[in-house]
Write a structure and sequence with these properties.
about 25% strand, seven-stranded mixed beta sheet, about 425 residues
């Protein structure tokens, strides 16, 4: 076993509320560190793990982290830390989570929770059996726009949510292991579909059971075994539909968009591709622009505060405040398990080209039939289907006769 390497740091660790073991020094580890160092202020990374000593030491030096190691178990069992943050490749999530549960540490795991629902269930069982805090780091349900939209939906601004659409597309992942299905668990679906599915569940209602999935996926561009484009439909027990589109073939940056449609209203969100910050440069610019940006010249769309816009700030705020308050966070391992089960159904549907059931061995939501259609009386003999203002100022009514079911229209004014 490698010994933890000590290096001097500038932080006063005695002031930290939580000392963190961070597993992973890639892009997600960088985003997590950018958020944790300098946001809530009292929580700091004490130990960092990477697959190589060189990467671990370099990351620790850059971010002034006191300890580094290339030994996973040693990092997790560091007696100085009380929280483990998992940001390593998907095929190692289960191993890390089980070690953290055994060590009695609070454990926060990046998306997807696991390679599949079976592994996710093992992880969920382990943390619950050990009685440790567990959080699912699904940042895109924590973006400022999403949180405000969820609040509006929760207050009934849209009525009953009927349909959601979530889109995440870009030119492809940033690391080699994403393209290896044995390591990642799949391609674009498991990489980004997990985001979109979690967003859809949040708007439709986590108490609503996902029933079945229809999904298309293909490898359109990259010479890989995994899918690089997919479109799916998730049907819920109340009749609502969650639609997602994910792609590693989209050119022009990263496109994050959501739509929510209800009986009383609609929400449209554009999180990233159009940021409200536009800059033109003739070609001398060499600065970082934004995640998955494909150009450093011409018209650029930088992001003012990337970790904030992508939800990391509110996500970690919720996680650590939940630990302190002894309550579950907004996203738990159970949520990650449900998302994994939906993605498993997606992959079965891709192969069968049919609707496939979502198989959940553990369901903690409500059990209900589809909601009845809402019907408004126009008068004693008719139901109101729709009203519309015509170009000449008159109002058209579309009505259904109660006795016969006949559809008629009337003009008023």
């Amino acid at each position: 076993m490698l010994l933890l390497k000590q290096r001097p740091g500038r932080f006063e660790w005695s002031r930290s509320m939580h000392k963190i073991t961070l597993l992973g020094t890639g892009l997600i580890g960088t985003f997590y560190t950018m958020t944790l160092h300098g946001r809530r202020g009292s929580d700091c990374i004490q130990t960092v793990y990477s697959r190589t000593s060189e990467a671990a030491e370099a990351f620790a030096s850059k971010w002034e982290i006191p300890h580094w190691t290339a030994d996973l178990q040693e990092a997790i069992t560091d007696p100085e830390t009380d929280v483990v943050v998992i940001g390593i490749p998907n095929d190692r999530h289960k191993e890390a989570a089980l070690l953290a549960a055994e060590a009695g540490k609070a454990v926060l795991c990046t998306k997807p929770l696991a390679l599949n629902a079976a592994d996710a269930k093992v992880m969920l069982d382990a943390v619950e059996r050990a009685g440790v805090f567990h959080g699912y780091l699904e940042d895109l349900v924590y973006t400022p726009k999403t949180l405000k939209a969820l609040d509006a939906v929760g207050r009934g601004a849209l009525g009953k949510v009927l349909w959601t659409r979530s889109r995440e597309t870009h030119p492809g992942p940033h690391s080699d292991w994403f393209f290896e299905p044995k390591v990642a668990g799949g391609g674009a679906i498991i990489d980004m579909g997990c985001h979109c599915i979690a967003i859809g569940r949040s708007f439709i209602g986590k108490e609503r059971r996902p029933v079945e999935v229809m999904c298309w996926a293909d490898t359109q561009v990259h010479p890989i075994e995994a899918e690089d484009h997919a479109i799916g439909l998730v049907r819920y027990d109340n009749g609502a539909i969650g639609q997602f589109e994910v792609s590693w073939t989209f050119r022009g940056g990263m496109d994050l968009r959501d739509e929510v449609s209800g009986t009383e209203g609609t929400i449209r969100l554009d999180h990233f591709l159009r940021t409200g910050f536009e800059m033109f440069t003739s070609g001398s610019n060499e600065d970082y622009v934004a995640e998955k940006a494909e150009s450093e010249s011409g018209w650029l769309f930088p992001v003012g505060d990337e970790v904030h816009e992508l939800g990391y700030v509110h996500m970690f705020l919720d996680m650590f405040e939940a630990i302190d308050a002894g309550r579950p966070p907004m996203e738990t391992f159970y949520d990650g398990y449900v998302v994994n089960a939906i993605m498993d159904a997606c992959y079965r549907s891709v192969r069968s080209r049919q609707w496939e059931p979502v198989e959940l061995d553990l369901w903690r939501g409500e059990e209900s039939a589809a909601d009845a259609l809402s019907a408004r009386d126009y008068d004693e003999g008719f139901l109101l289907i729709k009203t519309e203002k015509m170009p000449d100022g008159r109002k058209k009514l579309i009505l259904k006769e109660k006795a016969t079911g006949r559809i008629v229209q009337r003009i008023e004014g």
